[in-house]
Amino acid sequence: MLIRADITQAGVIAALAVQMWDEHTQEELERDFAALLQREDAAVFLAEEEGKAVGFAQCQLRRDYVEGTETSPVGYLEGIFVEPAYRGKGVARALLACCEQWAREQGCMEFASDCELDNTQSLAFHMRLGFDEANRVICFTKLL
User: Fold this and answer.
1) Which of 73, 80, 101, 140 could be cross-linked to 61 through a Cys-Cys bond (beta carbons 3.0 to 4.6 Å apart)?
2) What is the 3-state secondary structure (H, E, C) of 32-85?
3) Which strand (E) or helix (H) includes residue 95?
4) What is the β-pairing status of strands 52-62 and 2-4?
5) How far apart are CA 104 and CA 43, in angstroms?
6) What's the CA gap between 62 and 60, in Å, rounded?
7) Residue 112 CB neighbour total at 10 angstroms
8) Is residue 14 part of a domain?
9) For residues 77 and 98, is the Cβ–Cβ distance under 8 A?
10) What gap in Å lies between CA 52 and CA 48, rounded to an integer?
11) CA-to-CA distance for 144 and 128, rounded, in angstroms?
């Protein structure tokens, strides 16, 4: 079952998200998702199996330039995660479809995403689900 999450589910989402964004604590992510779930320009969808959350997808509207797009706003897949035991069963595909439908309802003509250069699993997922690669980039920082 797929549902649009609300603020009461911030902890459930954070418990899933920390498995993907492990540089953050679950508490940090719960605070972030609690704030995000109150915004009108963002949505989080949960996948549940037998009453247990097994995946989530976070999407938002981006109004700044999005690589490879020509319109604004653009629906943007900020993150998607499915528990390993539920992968390969169409859960991520269904979550992405919810995000894309939400973006259409917000007036978006385009939908985008990104992944790290070395994340071959995410790259394969995006390509399988109809995304086109727009660019590759390496970012730099320097202390002043």
Assistant:
1) 73
2) HHHHHCCCCCEEEEEEEECCEEEEEEEEEEECCCCCCCCCCCEEEEEEEEECHH
3) helix 91-105
4) unpaired
5) 13
6) 6
7) 19
8) yes
9) no
10) 5
11) 42
Tokens 């250069």 -> residue = 117
**Does residue 135 belong to any structural domain of this protein?**
no
- How many domains does the chain fold into? 1
pLDDT digit string (tens) for 76-106?
A: 999 999 999 999 999 999 999 999 999 999 9
What residue type is assigned to position 115 of the chain?
C
Q: Which domain holds residue 80?
A: 2-128
- The residue behind tokens 């779930």 is 37
Q: How far apart are CA 8 and CA 11, in angstroms?
A: 8
Rg (CA), the chain: 15
Q: Does 138 have pLDDT greater than 80?
A: no
